[in-house]
Write a structure and sequence with these properties.
Elements lengths: L2 H16 L18 H19 L13 H12 L8 E4 L2 E4 H23 L7 H20 L15 H8 L10 H5 L1
Antiparallel strand pairs: 1-2
Helix pairs in contact: 1-3, 1-4, 2-3, 2-4, 4-5, 5-6
């Protein structure tokens, strides 16, 4: 399946979680160090317009343009769900990047942050293996640079034979076994 279609598939998993976030969940801790659900939601809303603009080859500064995370995820999926979004180069703020790199970032936002939200709320979430293979390749390609920029934490070792999702989470610096109660055990 082509990347733009896999991205649309990835969005469906995230939307299933987004639809379950309630006002009482906003203070729940997430696997993202120092971020609760409200901070993660804020991050997604802040960067969504810039990522959406990049799909259309428009430079849009980050900033919360939407109150609804569902609306933002849907708009991103529609924008990056077009084959043309992945072609050529685009801009993120003042930086010109290959469009495929930015598309990979959006895929990561959907799956990695979708997993972060699901874990914070104790919800199951799954993605198709083809989506996860693409994401693993994207994270592997950018992991060192992501770590140097503070986007990813140090790689978390996972057991041999771990699932593709667990390997991808570990590569991105996430503990696949993280739960909200992990915080109290590590303190």
């Amino acid at each position: 399946m082509e990347k733009h279609l896999l991205l649309r598939e990835a969005a469906l998993g995230m939307l299933a979680v987004v639809d379950r976030v309630g006002a009482g969940d906003l203070g729940a801790p997430t696997p993202c160090a120092g971020w609760d659900v409200a901070a993660l939601r804020g991050h997604l809303l802040e960067w969504g317009p810039a990522l959406e603009g990049a799909a259309r080859k428009e430079s849009v500064p980050p900033g919360a343009a939407y109150d609804s995370l569902r609306e933002q995820v849907t708009r991103l999926a529609e924008a990056w769900g077009e084959p043309a979004a992945w072609a050529g180069t685009t801009r993120m703020a003042t930086v010109e990047l290959p469009a495929e790199v930015v598309g990979g970032m959006v895929l990561g936002e959907f799956v990695l942050h979708g997993w972060d939200l699901a874990r914070a709320l104790g919800l199951p979430v799954t993605w198709d293996d083809e989506v996860l293979r693409l994401l693993y390749a994207e994270v592997a390609r950018s992991a060192d640079q992501g770590r140097s920029m503070g986007v990813y934490a140090a790689e978390v070792p996972v057991p041999s034979g771990a699932s593709l999702l667990a390997r991808t989470l570990g590569l991105s610096g996430r503990d696949p076994d993280w739960t909200p109660s992990s915080l109290s055990r590590s303190s």
